[in-house]
Amino acid sequence: MDFEQECGVGVTVTPEQIEEAVEATINRHRSQLLMERYHFNLGLLMGEARAVLKWADGKMIKHEVDMQVLHLLGPKVEADLQKKPKVAKARLEETDQKPAKDVENGDPAGLTLSLMEQLRGEALKFHKPGENYKTPGYVTTPHTMDLLKQHLEITGGQVRTRFPPEPNGILHIGHAKAINFNFGYAKANSGICFLRFDDTNPEKEEAKFFTAIYDMVTWLGYTPHKVTYASDYFDQLYAWAVELIHRGQAYVCHQRGEELKGHNSLPSPWRDRPVEESLLLFEAMRKGKFAEGEATLRMKLVMEDGKMDPVAYRVKYTAHHRTGDKWCIYPTYDYTHCLCDSIEHITHSLCTKEFQSRRSSYFWLCNALDVYCPVQWEYGRLNLHYAVVSKRKILQLVAAGAVRDWDDPRLFTLTALRRRGFPPEAINSFCARVGVTVAQTTMEPHLLEACVRDMLNDTAPRAMAVLEPLQVVITNFPAAKHLDIQVPNFPADETKGFHQVPFASIVFIEKMDFKEEPEPGYKRLAWGQPVGLRHTGYVIELQHVVKGPTGCVESLEVTCTRADAGEKPKAFIHWVSQPLKCEIRLYERLFQHKNPEDPAEVPGGFLCDLNPESLRVVEAALVDCSVALAKPFDKLQFERVGYFSVDPDSCQGQLVFNRTVTLKEDPGKL
């Protein structure tokens, strides 16, 4: 008998045990796996799992390791196919120790080490505060060093950045990179970051956008040092505009807007008008003596892209949400941006690449007024395939009925991603993986989804839900009433607690988990093929199929036995008993092509590229009663189904769940 035990005779290893052992092994090596990705020695994972489950099938362990590693890392990218670089041991030890330091410092956004490393000043080759003049292309004047000295006296050498959105739309995934870069760079260098609303265009600004932008910044885990507005500085900006005219560097022009468009516009015939005349006309603009479009204030410079004399002020008879009717002239981005940076003593003005053509006007304007001049640095935008993010096009989608609103979970606005159930930490992790690049980056959505799975695998408690229910009656149920089953919230770590679900003589399983005539390789319930019910310790075996008048299966009758009383089943399936009815919304990609805005790929335009299967609503799904008290945005893993989030449409007695992502990446999406 001892000999048989030593040889593993009679030892049963269930698929659940293999899954839990592999998950525990991967968790022990998670940080190194995330760092080395597919260069990590996967044999180590198999060996450790095999040591725990001595008699498990080696092929099943290998398959589970492969699946869970894919789940954690996502599909291989180009870097994973390259040879592993040689790294000094001391360097690895240093890297292993740094994440703990970031956690100790209370990193609210859950940023990974890689992003923190990228955002150190040395790594980016950025200038140190007060050493702006060392930056290539930085323009100095005889006043520069004195202004930098005054700047250092005010800031104490502190890094200062800002995130300056226009409050005319909802933030999207590209803004998440900008938020992470601006706030993250300040954090990585013990600095501060302002949230500054560029509210210089009152026609397009709405109060809801201010609130939504602030909410999304804090949702991503950041707290602005101060919330400011360009309109805070309208008086100073106007005074500087007057000074610019005095210095002969600006003039009032009467060319119409259509004449100013493009890079080859005709020179203004008013460019050399007397300073006194421009001063009087600019004052007349401020007093409302010109109609919209009749006069502008223009600066005397030529930008990198060849655009000549950009506009500094224009007439707009629109009340401002903060200043009311005080102003009928408003400054432009080209005029406002650098001067607000100067007022706030920003050290690093981080902009996306399209603003590179405005760098000359940035330096020129600060120097023309002899004020502190920050340094503008550009980085590449982040875009996603299968997505549109522009305000105008999202409004078209809403008008066409293709999506419900800005927060429709099929969009890639941040409010939409939150509603779908994407954790902010996963979005930050995705931005870290993308990295700080100068070139524009267009990523596949499945790489973002991989970060979401990685986060939810550790944070989303498990529950059971059945989307297409099939009633199963257990004819020999072992108790007179229901049994209370203790289900671990996280099967791989039972220290995180349990929840209780009822197990009665009537249960519901997925229709797809039963087949009268199974194909080869089918492992779930069929004639002569019993299955285990997860967490119950029971196996059910088919006895009778009940069909309706049309021949469709209406219910099953089965018998149950203890799982340890006989041969182990080939599979364990999820189930619910005495469940709650709920609505489940299953989302897929909104567009069918990678680049829906590309006429070469979609000649008819993005509205012709909508995926008719982008939303499927399951109105009569069943979920176990442990989720009865779930609140909007709570996140769960429905075992064997996917990750889900409670939608704000939920009300008492009627929960609505959005599918966040599937459990595993769909190979068809790669």
From TrEMBL:
Residues in tRNA synthetases class I (E and Q) anti-codon binding domain copies: 572-647
Name of one Pfam family that matches: tRNA-synt_1c_C
Domain Glutamyl/glutaminyl-tRNA synthetase class Ib catalytic per the UniProt entry, residue ranges: 158-457
Glutamyl/glutaminyl-tRNA synthetase class Ib anti-codon binding domain location: 460-560
Classification via InterPro entries: aa-tRNA-synth_I_CS, Gln-tRNA-synth, Gln-tRNA-synth_Ib_RNA-bd_2, Gln-tRNA-synth_Ib_RNA-bd_N, Gln-tRNA-synth_Ib_RNA-bd_N_2, Gln/Glu-tRNA_Ligase, Glu/Gln-tRNA-synth, Glu/Gln-tRNA-synth_Ib_cat-dom
Annotated keywords: Aminoacyl-tRNA synthetase, ATP-binding, Ligase, Nucleotide-binding, Protein biosynthesis
Domain Glutaminyl-tRNA synthetase class Ib non-specific RNA-binding, first and last residues per copy: 2-58, 61-149
Gene Ontology annotations for the cellular component aspect, listed alphabetically: aminoacyl-tRNA synthetase multienzyme complex; cytosol
Enzymatic reactions: tRNA(Gln) + L-glutamine + ATP = L-glutaminyl-tRNA(Gln) + AMP + diphosphate
Single GO BP term: glutaminyl-tRNA aminoacylation
Molecular function per GO: ATP binding; glutamine-tRNA ligase activity
Enzyme Commission number(s) from the entry: 6.1.1.18
Keyword check for Cytoplasm: no
Entry annotated with the keyword Aminoacyl-tRNA synthetase: yes
NCBIfam families referenced in this protein's UniProt entry, alphabetically: glnS (TIGR00440)
Family listed: Belongs to the class-I aminoacyl-tRNA synthetase family.
Name of the protein in question: glutamine--tRNA ligase
Gene name linked to the record: Qars
